[in-house]
Each structure stands twice: as C-alpha cells, then as structure tokens.
Amino acid sequence: MKRFWNRGLPGATGLAVIAAVGMAAPSAWAQQGAAPKVSVAQAVIKPIKDTSTFIGRGEAIDKADIMARVSGYLEEVLVKDGAEVAQGDVLFRIERSAYEAVLESRRAELAQAEANLELASLDLARKQELFERGSVPEADRDTSRANELVAEAQVRAAKAAIRQAELDLSYTEIHAPFSGRVGRVEVSIGDVVSPSGSALVNIVREAPVYVSFSVNEKQFVEILQQLDAEGIDRSDTDTAPEVFVVLPNGAELEEKGHIAFAGNRVDPATGAVTIRAEFHNDHRLILDGAFLTVGLQSQEAVDRIIISQAAIQRDQQGPFVLVVDAQNQVQQRYIVTGDVQGTGIIVLDGLTKGETVVVEGLQKIRPGVEVDPVLAGQAGE
Fold first, then answer.
1. Residue 363: domain span
2. Residue 86 and residue 257: Cα distance in Å, rounded?
3. In a domain, 2, yes or no
4. From CA 234, how far away is CA 294, in angstroms rounded?
C-alpha cells in the first residue's frame, strides 16, 4: 500500500499540472493572437534640390613644360622641387657671356651700317647737285640713290639683328610664365640645355581649377530643360547650377563651383557631351588629373516624398516597403528610390504623401497581417 500511494503521487501532480495548463491556455492563446506592435513613420513631403552625380577629372587651367629657348651651359637653378612660384620669377639662368658677345658684335655691325648710310647719303647729295649743274650724267645720280637705299636696308637689318641678339640674351634667364607650383626639377647646374632638349621642369596653376565631366545626350537635355524651367540663363555663370565635388578620400569639398563651359556637340564615339566646371580651389585639394565625383544641384527646390531608410527592404524585384493601411493591414509596395537625404531617402514612385511605412519590427510581420502601429520619428529628423 505504501509503495502504491508513493507511485500514485506523481500522477496526481501531473493531473494538477494539466489542469493548470488547461486554465492558462486560453490566456496564452489570446496573447498569441494579439496584433504585433511595430514602429511606423509617414511618408512626408520636403523641398529638395535635385542632384545628379558623374565621374569627373581635375584639369589645370594653365600648365606648361618649361623649355630652354636658347642653347647653353646651365649656370644657376633657382627653384626647388615642388615650390610655389609667382609669375615672372627667375627659375634658371644659362651662361650669358656668349650671347653678350654676339650682342656687342651686332651693335658694331649697326654702327658700320649707319656709317655706310651716312656716306651714301653724302654721295647722293653731291651727285644730285652736280647733276643739276649738268656736270655728271643721270646714271651716276641714280647709282648714288640706289647705294643709299642699300645702306638704309643694311641699317634696318643690323637693328633687327640687335633685337634678336637681345632676345637671345634675355632667354638666358628662364622665368615662370604664370603663378603656380612646379614639379620635379629635371636638370642640374652644369647641364647643357637647348630648345630641342627635354623640359627643365613643369609648372601647374593650382587655383582656380577646372573639373571636366561628361553626360549622355538624355542627361544633357534634361539639364537644359531644367535650366529653362527655372528661368536660368545657361550662359550666365552667376545663375548657373551649383556644382559640388567629392574628393578621392570620400569627403565632399565645402567649396561649390559653377559651370564654365558646356560642349556644343555630341561626341559620336561616346555619345556624350563634355561639361567643365570651375572651382576657386582655395585649399588646393583638387589636383590636375585627379578623378572625382561631380554633382550638379538645381537652384530651385522641388517637393519630394521622403521616408526613413530603415523602411527599405530588397528582393529580386527591387526595393520595397511594408505599408500599413487604414485598417492596420500590412501591404507590400515596390518603390523607385532616389538620392539619400540624411537618414531618409527620396521615393520617386510607389508611395504618396501621408502613407505609413513600417520602420521597426519588420521581422515580426508579413503582408496581409494586422499590426498595432506606433508612430516613430520622421525621416531626416
């Protein structure tokens, strides 16, 4: 009997547990049937300036290879690698003595030519006087006149030779043609340089600077239509659309640029039109030849629908959101997205103002179920 009742005790306990479960089951099932709570946000309208991005490249407005214009022994190198120079600064000096000697020789030739001209003029004056008296034939007078003309031509040739000699002498000093930064100096003192040789150094004007990029025909037409719609004179740089660039390190340049040039033809090889923007480049962050992301921004803001990026999901068909309707039922809605705006994203198609999208609790729901929505913060707040 003792063993019997001991064995029966677990059975009694099990009945009690079953009874307890039976009593608790209705409330548990009721809890499982409750609509899940989700955080939602409304699609809002905000004024946004439309932007389009392209791949661009920095282009110096002025850049040049500095060449010797006369041949000679390089006597001085007055610039260091990578130095900033001002227009007119002397960069190199070539030995002057040979060119000074040539100049003195040309001056002597001029003096000789002027003396010959004076002698020819005196001879012509005498022959003219004698011809008028009938003492010499007309042929002698004409010969003297021709000699004077030859002497005048020799004087002009001698003066031209002096100007050339002066130019050659001035070319022994090589100056910066514009302000900018030089690259690596490619020569040393003692080198013999010449116009047919290699460049001595290159120089680049760093500010202002161009950024060139290409747009296809469709994009170009859309840009022109936008300018016309906003009443902007495309030839007026003061009202042209602002241009911004993203540097190679991913940082956006604070300084904005403006359109300086737009091509007048479509390249048949690429189907693109070249556009050039100008930047002051005060901090010298845009380098000649650097690849950049270029953005065009409209002058006038346009009303756009924005939702939180947290609401976006994707599948093979593209981005979609879960919309909560007036009956708190979940609907799946495929959308077309635009640019990111802070924590929000522009919706170009698929949503209307005021519609509610789920931003938190997406893993707990599916299309067609009823939810208990709780309003969250709006996109961009």
1. 37-48+303-375
2. 25
3. no
4. 18
CATH of the domain at 315: 2.40.420.20
| Domain-embedded: residue 14 | no
- Tell me which amino acid residue 200 is: L
Of 125, 132, 173, 172, the residue nearest 147 (C-alpha): 125
- Which residues are registered as beta bridge partners of 73? 192
Query: Is the pLDDT at 20 greater than 50, yes or no?
Result: no
Cis amide prior to 47 (ω within 30 degrees): no
- 236 shares a domain with 193: no
Q: At what angle do helices 138-170 and 97-133 cross, to 10 degrees?
A: 160
Mean pLDDT, range 198-224, rounded to an integer: 90
Q: Enter the tokens of residue 167.
A: 């130019």
pLDDT reported for residue 326: 87
Structure tokens at 290: 């650097």
* Separation of alpha carbons 23 and 229, rounded Å: 72
Which of helix, strand or coil describes residue 111?
helix
Q: Do 109 and 198 share a domain, yes or no?
A: yes
CB 71 within 8 Å of CB 195: yes
Tell me the chain's radius of gyration from C-alpha atoms: 44
pLDDT at 10 over 70: no
Q: What is the pLDDT of residues 29-41, one digit of tens each?
A: 334 567 888 899 9
Distance CA 30, CA 288 (A): 70
- Classify residue 286 by its DSSP letter: S
**CA separation (Å) from 198 to 64, 73, 184, 195, 296?**
13, 15, 13, 8, 41
pLDDT score recorded for residue 240: 64
Q: Give CA–CA dist 291/57, Å, rounded.
A: 4
H or E segment and range at residue 151: helix 138-170
